[in-house]
């Protein structure tokens, strides 16, 4: 199974196996990785699943759609490599993906 | 369970209770956690029940708050299909419907709310439904489809979402609202009028200012809704969507302070320091608005779950959040933040006939109290931050969609 590494703001790493087709948000929530609240359950409505995608993965995760980009443009700690993790779907091509979590989701 | 390990019992395995169990483990709680829930399912998300689930676009896995394995992995004992029937605060014990008695060191009440019932002739007929859980949603879904006729009593968010989903499934739908407009208690007039127009455009009949007299039946099944003015609305299913009543009886019987909900502070503590209460069953402080109130939303359930878990684990309380909510109807994404108590003025940003717009509610000092955004995620995000900041904003800027709100909100 492909895996994702989540790095908490304090540096703690979580290597999680994630079934293809599930979102990177779901991988964190389902395994108790702290720092992703996912209030809306993956509907791209809350921006509490914000992550920074580490290179070289950014391009492979695709580009945010308009809704996601709008939400991100107001996220408190947005950077050029910010994504909403509920909008990244796991695939074999993303095996090894590394994402960092912001200090807080608000 | 070893005797010297402190135990937390969570009564109610819904969104709040399930989240609290997860946060307790995240925050390092080492003792026992027992999650007692009346429903047969492990905690799941209710929002899709009136949206994707009803339309057949969600699965049990996607609905689940956490996968089944999560609970064993995190040593969270699930006692499902089991009701907490009594609470003895002096002995720190709860009694369960299966006769078991559990000791607790800390108790979290996460009892949720239940649909209000309508004391009407015919409300006990077959085909008269409410919507709170998966069983309700499945019954409703089975009653919807081409050629089926649904009457929704109550034009609140759940009623309107079901109406939209029922249209997508091909059913004929009428929404019957007692007030002069839909969402009268929870939205501003601009949004209400806009949504009424959208529903009508999609073929939903909306009757406002309409008083229901009775539900008529035929062979034990609902066949029409009769209004007080004599109008008869034929249907084969009736959804009663007139709001929810908090489950506070257990707390009341145990002598906890309750008003419209179980009274709690910003650490989610009830009037008994060993008992926290979270989610739809609580009446909580709303610090931005200088009052308390009951919020029925997932973000509130999660925020209070964090408050309780942080308090129990001795962590600093989480920063207060702006209340917010979302709803999906047809191709509309609604996002609301803040509460429009004592709003003085509304400012419209964008055009309701255009691709998206937002309504800002301001107080007398031009501070943003609330925002209602329709297909306008950036305005929602900006509004949420402006509510949190409680800063005065220039109305002209809010009103002009060409002016970005980014700098204001920063
Ligand atoms: C159809 C629908 C659509 C919604 N859509 C949205 C939305 O789009 N956005 C949003 O933010 N919110 C939405 N909500 C509201 C949201 O689902 C609730 O605010 C949230 O579920 C509250 O969580 P809770 O844990 O407090 O209550 P619940 O999730 O209701 O959980 C309470 C649980 O406690 C159980 N229980 C009660 N009494 C006992 C007892 N004595 N012993 C044991 N167990 C007991 C109940 O059976 C229930 O399982 C929606 C709700 C519904 C019904
Ligand atoms: S989970 Fe809400 S935006 Fe991703």
Automatic annotation (TrEMBL), chain A:
GO MF, one annotated term: metal ion binding
Q: Looking at the record's lineage, which domain of life comes first? A: Bacteria
| Annotated 2Fe-2S ferredoxin-type domain residues | 2-105
One Gene Ontology term from the biological process aspect of the record? P450-containing electron transport chain
- What keyword terms does UniProt attach to this protein? 2Fe-2S, Iron, Iron-sulfur, Metal-binding
Q: Which cofactor does it need?
A: [2Fe-2S] cluster
Q: Which PROSITE patterns match?
A: 2FE2S_FER_2
- Cite a single Pfam family from the UniProt record: Fer2
InterPro entries in the cross-refs: 2Fe-2S_ferredoxin-like_sf (IPR036010), 2Fe-2S_ferredoxin-type (IPR001041), Adrenodoxin-like (IPR001055), Beta-grasp_dom_sf (IPR012675)
As for family, the record states: Belongs to the adrenodoxin/putidaredoxin family.
| Name of the protein described by the UniProt record | 2Fe-2S iron-sulfur cluster binding domain-containing protein
State the organism named in the record: Roseicella aerolata
Classification of source organism = Bacteria, Pseudomonadati, Pseudomonadota, Alphaproteobacteria, Acetobacterales
TrEMBL record, chain B:
Q: Which Pfam families match?
A: Pyr_redox_2, Reductase_C
Q: Which InterPro entries match?
A: FAD-oxidoreductase/Apoptosis, FAD/NAD-bd_sf, FAD/NAD-binding_dom, FAD/NAD-linked_Rdtase_dimer_sf, Reductase_C
One annotated Gene Ontology cellular component of this protein: cytoplasm
Domain called FAD/NAD(P)-binding: residue spans: 7-305
Q: Does the keyword Flavoprotein apply?
A: yes
Residue ranges of domain Reductase C-terminal in the record? 324-409
Keyword check for Nuclease, yes or no. Answer: no
Spell out the molecular function terms from Gene Ontology: oxidoreductase activity, acting on NAD(P)H
Report the cofactors: FAD
Alphabetized, the UniProt keywords read:
FAD, Flavoprotein, Oxidoreductase
Q: Under what name is this protein listed?
A: FAD-dependent oxidoreductase
Origin species, per record, is Roseicella aerolata
Output the lineage of the source organism: Bacteria, Pseudomonadati, Pseudomonadota, Alphaproteobacteria, Acetobacterales
């Amino acid at each position: 199974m492909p895996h994702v590494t989540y790095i908490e703001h304090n540096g703690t790493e979580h290597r999680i196996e994630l079934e293809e087709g599930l979102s990177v948000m779901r991988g964190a929530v389902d395994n108790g990785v702290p720092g992703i609240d996912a209030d809306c359950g993956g509907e791209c409505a809350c921006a509490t699943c914000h992550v920074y995608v580490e290179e070289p993965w950014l391009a492979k995760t695709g580009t945010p759609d308009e809704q996601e980009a709008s939400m991100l443009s107001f996220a408190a700690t947005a950077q050029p490599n910010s994504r909403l993790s509920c909008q990244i779907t796991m695939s074999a091509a993303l095996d090894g993906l590394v994402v960092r979590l912001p200090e807080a989701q608000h | 369970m070893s005797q010297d390990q402190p135990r937390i019992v969570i009564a109610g395995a819904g969104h709040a209770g399930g989240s609290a169990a997860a946060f307790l483990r995240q925050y390092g709680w080492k003792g026992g956690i027992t999650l007692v829930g009346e429903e047969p399912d492990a905690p799941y998300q209710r929002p899709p029940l009136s949206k994707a689930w009803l339309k057949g676009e969600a699965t049990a896995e996607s609905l689940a708050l956490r996968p089944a394995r999560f609970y064993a992995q995190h040593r969270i004992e699930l006692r499902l299909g089991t009701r907490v029937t009594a609470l003895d605060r002096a002995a720190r014990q709860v009694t369960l419907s299966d006769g078991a008695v559990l000791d607790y060191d800390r108790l979290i009440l996460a009892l949720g709310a239940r649909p209000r019932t309508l004391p009407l002739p015919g409300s006990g007929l077959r085909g008269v439904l409410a919507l709170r859980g998966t069983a309700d949603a499945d019954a409703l879904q089975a009653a919807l489809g081409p050629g089926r006729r649904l009457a929704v009593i109550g034009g609140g968010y759940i009623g309107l979402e079901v109406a939209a989903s029922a249209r997508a499934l091909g059913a004929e739908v009428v929404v019957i609202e007692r007030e002069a407009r839909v969402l009268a208690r929870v939205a501003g007039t601009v949004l209400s009028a806009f949504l009424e127009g959208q529903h009508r455009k999609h073929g939903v009949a909306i009757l406002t200012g309409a008083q229901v007299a009775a539900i008529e039946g035929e062979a034990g099944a609902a066949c029409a809704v009769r209004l007080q003015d004599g109008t008869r609305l034929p249907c084969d299913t009736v959804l009663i969507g007139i709001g929810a009543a908090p489950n506070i009886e257990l707390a009341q019987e145990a002598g906890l302070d309750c008003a419209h909900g179980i009274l709690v502070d910003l650490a989610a503590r009830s009037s008994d320091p060993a008992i926290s209460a979270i989610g739809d069953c609580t009446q909580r402080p709303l610090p931005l608005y200088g009052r308390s109130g009951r919020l029925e939303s997932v973000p509130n359930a999660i925020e209070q779950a964090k408050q309780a878990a942080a308090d129990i684990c001795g962590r600093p309380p989480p920063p207060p959040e702006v209340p917010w909510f979302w709803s999906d109807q047809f191709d509309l994404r609604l996002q609301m933040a803040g509460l429009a108590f004592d709003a003085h003025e509304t400012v419209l940003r964008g055009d309701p006939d255009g691709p998206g717009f937002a309504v800002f509610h301001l107080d007398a000092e031009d501070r943003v109290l609330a925002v209602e955004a329709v297909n306008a995620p950036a305005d929602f995000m900006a509004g949420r931050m402006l509510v949190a900041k409680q800063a005065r904003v220039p109305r002209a800027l809010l009103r002009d969609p060409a002016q970005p709100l980014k700098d204001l909100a920063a």
